[in-house]
Amino acid sequence: MQSILIIVLAALLNSSAIPVCVTMDHLMVGTKYGRSSGQRPSAFVFTENGIDVHVDRYAKTPGGYAFYQAQIESATPTFGTKNVINVNNISLIFNFHRWPSGVQKVTLDFLEKGEFQNLSINGSQVYKGSLTKVPSRIGSIRITSTWSSAKGNKGTLELTGQIKTLSIGGQELWIDNVCGS
Length: 181
Known about the structure:
- Keywords: Plasmid.
- Strands 1, 2, 7, 8, 10, 13, 14, 15 and 17 form a nine-stranded antiparallel β-sheet that branches. Strands 3-4-9-16-11-12 form a six-stranded antiparallel β-sheet, with no helix packed on it. Strands 5-6 form a two-stranded antiparallel ribbon.
- By secondary structure, the protein is mainly beta.
- It has one domain: Jelly Rolls.
- 7% of the residues lie in helices and 54% in strands.
- The two termini are 29 Å apart.
């Protein structure tokens, strides 16, 4: 009995090493979130693999806020796997609260065609700019952006450190495969 308990505890402690992802693949293409759906900033919209997703305000440049819509779309031949989410003047918050210490790594795929995106980690000040020019650190979180500029800026963000929440938004921004481990 003790050996079973030890195995279960070891599996729980190491479970954060196995990636859990928000792929949007289970959501219906055409589903909209945000103001056009009657939702308010910080409203919960769906959960996938234990990760809660909320909509929130998008910080405009040079100032002010917008809260428009995010929409589930089919992937294209050049971006995404099955479904992706198109973010249009709105932010999404990915909440890793089911892991008491958060997750240690988050990766996500992006396609940006707009000029300014938002990125905030664990409630940090919002970075406003291209995801291809994101700083190498926000707070204690290390950030790597790899990308190419064929048909918009398409790439992957990798965030490393203790991550409890990730907020990302923008204008003409598509997101897929948000994975925490």
